[in-house]
Specification:
Largest sheet: 3 strands, antiparallel
Strand order of the largest sheet: 1-2-3
Shape: globular
Number of helices: 10
Structural class: mainly alpha
Helix content: 40-55%
Number of strands: 5
Strand content: 5-15%
Distance between the termini: 56 Å
């Protein structure tokens, strides 16, 4: 019986799959597997096995096998809302996708933009989004950051017509960089991608800030993480600051009042 204080993950496996795993982990135990994995009684419809982070313990009839090699579960890692690269669960969506085609009337980017405009058509919802970005710790609305980037892209795109994107020195450059899917889409390094994003958003904020106080606040928030090398700063802090910077831009550009 496993220790109830040990953090566990419940995984359902067929007997054949579990047998293959244990053969790989404990070759010396293979002689016992034919008995250990004989079919359970007819009244047993399924068997659950506990896979613990430090060991695998299987109990079936009289046999107990405890390999010393940990069983890695990294293949089942699910990207967080900070790391996922698809939007609205649409295959091949997201800024790094070759099918994105940002700026075109044909493509997945255009399709996601239509969904985005409908989703954030309510002023109340837009207000809740900005509030959650400015205060991530108390957020009641959790939006994947890839979608936040889509919102920013649409707001910056609209801002070209009335100058609310900051004009010639404003966020058109950041939007072009985002569409190029390199600087903010560093492969297998979301922390560095986020730091690049924070640095560029901070660098252009002076073109839209409404006061010196707002500008100083943006500099202070960004500096919390940009002052360090990307290997020396925690991902949670980086992602939090990225959200705050995005929220400050949307707030300054009156996203709540104007929408997209």
């Amino acid at each position: 019986r496993s220790n109830p204080r040990t953090r566990q993950t419940m995984v359902s496996l067929t007997l054949g799959q579990l047998s293959s795993i244990l053969i790989a982990l404990v070759p010396s135990a293979t002689s016992n597997l034919s008995d250990a994995f004989s079919m359970p009684p007819n009244n047993v419809k399924s068997t659950h096995y506990h896979i613990i982070s430090t060991s695998v313990s299987v109990v079936h009839r009289r046999h107990q096998l405890q390999p010393t090699t940990p069983l890695s579960m990294t293949t089942n890692h699910q990207p967080s809302i900070e790391e996922t690269k698809t939007i609205y669960d649409i295959p091949n969506s997201g800024w790094s996708s070759n099918a994105w085609n940002w700026g075109s009337a044909i493509g997945i980017g255009h399709d996601c933009a239509m969904i985005c405009r409908r989703r954030w058509s309510s002023r109340k919802d837009r207000e809740a989004l900005v509030s959650s970005l400015l205060n991530p710790q108390a957020a009641k609305v959790e939006v994947p950051f890839e979608e936040v980037k889509l919102i920013l892209g649409l707001v910056w795109q609209n801002g070209r017509w009335d100058g609310s994107d900051g004009g010639p020195n404003g966020y058109a450059e950041v939007l072009s960089t985002m569409a190029a899917a390199r600087r903010y889409e560093v492969k297998d390094n979301e922390v560095l991608s986020a730091l690049n994003f924070i640095e560029d958003v901070r660098g252009h904020y002076y073109t839209i800030s409404r006061s010196k106080e707002d500008l100083d606040h943006m500099k202070s928030v960004a500096h919390e993480v940009t002052q360090y090398h990307h290997h020396m700063v925690g991902s949670e802090d980086v992602f939090r600051v990225r959200r705050v910077c995005a929220g400050m831009v949307l707030d300054a550009m009156n996203f709540v009042g104007k929408g997209i």
